Amino acid sequence: QKEVEQNSGPLSVPEGAIASLNCTYSDRGSQSFFWYRQYSGKSPELIMSIYSNGDKEDGRFTAQLNKASQYVSLLIRDSQPSDSATYLCAVFDNFNKFYFGSGTKLNVKP
Amino acid sequence: SAVISQKPSRDICQRGTSLTIQCQVDSQVTMMFWYRQQPGQSLTLIATANQGSEATYESGFVIDKFPISRPNLTFSTLTVSNMSPEDSSIYLCSVALSVLSYEQYFGPGTRLTVT
């Protein structure tokens, strides 16, 4: 059974701080990794994708991938109350299937 | 990205009945998926909708309960058959636009309540 693990949280950070969200996956053959943001009552929204080891930056978001450790993370700099949501980690394997983690709830306190 | 619409956005149905959910995309896409998300839970893949052939179902989901059609590259339907209260959930369709990036985009979802 392939697994994607996330800490369910909630993760609370003050406004302006860096929020760090972590994800581990079990399938060493996975090649594509994604972070989604889901506001309560809404559908998931893609915010970052990463395919190779290292860091990928997009605005206030940085995704980090370490395939040797089977670890993906998302850093949110200068966190804002509007960043408060559940963040889902997703992995796409070599058999054209997506696996989602259970999500980490982030609370950014004003 | 893509513009994805779903109908209906929500419905309340009686047990034993069936509901068909429609998913429309504004461009041709290779991969379409159907997910279920129960309250407070993550996403569970029901099936991959294949254009011109039978859908590929995940473990725990069967065609008799969740028949899927995909007549073309922009449209798919999911039917929830012989509903029970346990089928109450949010049903989401999603698409992957590119077989190179596999970035997946979700429709707004259908909130189903079975009484």
What are the defining features of this structure?
A: 110 residues; mainly beta; 5-stranded antiparallel β-sheet; globular; B: mainly beta; 4-stranded antiparallel β-sheet; 0% helix
Describe the fold and architecture.
- The complex is a heterodimer of chains A (110) and B (115).
- Chain A is 0% helix and 55% strand.
- Chain A has strands at 4-6, 11-14, 19-25, 32-38, 45-50, 54-58, 61-66, 71-76, 85-92, 98-100, 104-109.
- In chain A, a hairpin with a 2-residue loop joins strand 6 (54-58) and strand 7.
- With 115 residues, chain B is mainly β.
- Chain B contains no helices and eleven strands.
- Chain B has strands at 4-7, 10-13, 19-25, 31-37, 43-49, 56-57, 68-72, 75-80, 89-96, 104-106, 110-114.
- In chain B, strand 5 (43-49) and strand 6 form a beta hairpin.
- Chain B starts with a strand and ends with a strand.
- The model of chain B has no long low-confidence stretch (mean pLDDT 93).
- Classes of the chains: A mainly beta (110), B mainly beta (115).
- Chain A binds chain B through residues 32, 34, 42-46, 49, 51, 88, 90, 92, 96-98, 100-103, and chain B through 1, 31, 33, 41-43, 45, 48, 92, 101-109.
